[in-house]
Amino acid sequence: MRFLSKSIFAAAIFALLAVPGIALAHPKLLSASPAENATVKTASRIVLKFSERLTPKLSGATLTMTGMPGMANHPDMKMTSVNAAIGSDGSSIVLTSPKPLPAGTYRVDWHVVGGDTHRITGTHSFTIG
Prior knowledge:
The protein is α+β, with helices and mostly antiparallel strands. The chain has one helix at 2-23; strands at residues 29-33, 39-40, 45-50, 60-67, 77-78, 83-86, 92-96, 104-113, 119-128. The radius of gyration is 21 Å and the shape is elongated.
């Protein structure tokens, strides 16, 4: 009987330790439009979809033009007219430009905070051409 009690106790401890690991997973980028390293003809809206709901006040993104056709030494240029907001689903970041973005290469620098309150950062690149 004593062995059975130790086995039950050990199983209970294991279960308690395993559950928080599942609950505290970091948000992960699941998909994006335009897709990573894709070349598209035009875009005025970029959507990054994450694996969980985001904390709006602590999550966001910026868009930087990193290259322009015909300009070998084009300096990185932050696109200040682009607005970033949490999507209506609560688990995406939507970047919107008032007009189609010019041809070139782009990088989205994003930062998100989910339920575990850890800040996660990443980048996403695509081309308009």
